[in-house]
Design brief:
Length: 386
């Protein structure tokens, strides 16, 4: 069940803190320190940790609403928040059979560590279900090195969750996840992060070197945690924050149109028609995000639990949500820009939409849509919709 107080807290952090620094974060490609500190202060980095371990036991629809609330003000803050929670979800949903991960979650509640994601790797492109690097276990210790193309907020992460092959003899797709803690890894930056958008995520490439205790390997196969958790949480939480970016673009367009209407009382400005059009697309986006996030939450609670998240039908729905929201968002922001005209094009106007447009273009390549279409295409060869 959604907790309105927590959503209000995220809205306040969004409007009072993230929004205040969003321009600087974007302009200087800098980490959104202030907003993430405020989220930590409210213990929101452990929102997904079960209540019995001290967390909030937050469910999918509420977490999605929080991502939307932050995305309305600073896409980078919302993306860091979402990506951290994708990692926490993998730990909470697949690791709690292990005393190490139960204790880690309790520590997360207390210390609010920020967890980065290391799935991408030089040599496999954006195929998260394939790794070249392997965890090497000797006795009760492991070593793991990875040449990652992109690690968002890598330099600001306390801990990292890394995908890799199960061992040096395993196939590329036979993967596990390993949590490495601050002090157990070093990162050597291999590229810059001077991008079109999502600049505050601070996501250059890094060569990672790490070692630790073998209990830090998340139990089970990554094949399962990917389908049941990493993919649904990524696509739903990303879609949630993309909805936030799109909503703010439409809100700016609506303010612009109303101001025009006030200047000529009794006359409906021509841009009002375009506003009606863009709100239509935004509603489509919102309904899709809410419906899929609700369905995922219900499936997680169903008697079949995780098994129900492994069906082809569910995987197709996740893929469709990612593809449609990442595409519609660009459309919505572009339509809003046309409504605001030059005032939206200027960087120093309250109707400015340049940042929204640049941020929104990251969505279709953050796991390339064609890569996702290719997966859906092969599933549709055997799937019969009932
Ligand atoms: C803002 C942002 C933050 C990120 N943060 C992280 C992070 O924290 N950690 C991390 O590990 N990664 C991160 N990534 C990387 C991301 O997850 C992808 O790995 C990366 O965006 C894909 O890179 P690519 O386009 O070079 O690779 P590819 O996926 O290889 O795509 C290259 C091109 O080939 C096409 N293509 C590839 N495979 C197929 C196929 N099978 N069928 C059809 N077309 C195909 C794609 O559509 C695309 O046009 C981030 C990316 C962004 C944009």
């Amino acid at each position: 069940m959604k907790n309105d107080t927590r959503i209000k807290i995220a809205q306040r952090i969004g409007s009072d803190i993230a929004a205040k620094h969003a321009l600087d974060v974007d302009k200087n490609s800098r980490f959104p320190t202030e907003a993430i500190a405020a989220l930590k202060q409210e213990k929101l980095l452990s929102a997904l940790v079960p209540v019995e371990l001290g967390g909030m036991g937050m469910e999918m629809t509420e977490l999605t609403a929080l991502c939307t609330a932050l995305g309305q003000h600073c896409a980078a803050t919302a993306m860091v928040f979402a990506m951290h929670h994708i990692q926490v979800a993998c730990i909470v949903r697949h690791g709690l059979g292990s005393p190490f991960f139960r204790s880690y979650c309790q520590e997360l509640v207390e210390k609010q560590m920020l967890i980065g994601s290391v799935t991408s790797e030089v040599g496999v492109g954006g195929d998260t279900r394939s790794s070249i690097c392997a965890v090497e276990v000797a006795g009760d210790r492991f070593t793991l090195n990875k040449d990652a193309t992109t690690i968002s907020y890598g330099a600001h992460s306390d801990d990292l969750l890394i995908t890799c092959r199960r061992d040096a003899s395993a196939a590329r797709s036979d993967q596990v996840m390993v949590l490495v803690r601050k002090g157990q890894f070093t990162l050597e930056q291999t590229s810059q992060w001077d991008t079109l958008g999502m600049r505050g995520t601070c996501s250059p490439g890094f060569k990672l070197t790490s070692s630790g205790s073998s209990e830090q390997i998340v139990p089970g196969a990554y094949a399962d945690s990917s389908s049941q958790t990493m993919v649904p949480y990524s696509h739903i939480l990303w879609a949630g924050l993309w909805l936030g970016i799109a909503s703010d673009a439409v809100a700016r367009a609506a303010t612009f149109v109303r101001a025009e209407a006030r200047r000529n009382p009794g006359v409906t400005p021509p841009t009002a028609l375009r506003l009606a059009e863009v709100t239509n697309t935004l509603q489509l986006m919102r309904s899709n995000v809410q419906a899929v996030s609700q369905e995922c939450e219900e499936l997680q609670k169903s008697a079949e639990g995780n098994e129900s998240l492994l069906t082809i039908g569910f995987a197709l729905k996740m893929n469709n949500l990612k593809i449609s929201t990442s595409t519609l968002m660009v459309q919505v922001v572009h339509q809003s820009l046309l409504i605001c005209g030059i005032m939206g094009y200027k960087n120093d106007s309250k109707f400015s939409l340049g940042r929204h447009l640049r941020d929104s273009h990251s969505a279709q390549l953050m796991v390339g849509n064609d890569r996702i279409y290719a997966k859906s295409a092969s599933m549709l060869l055997v799937y019969k919709d009932e």
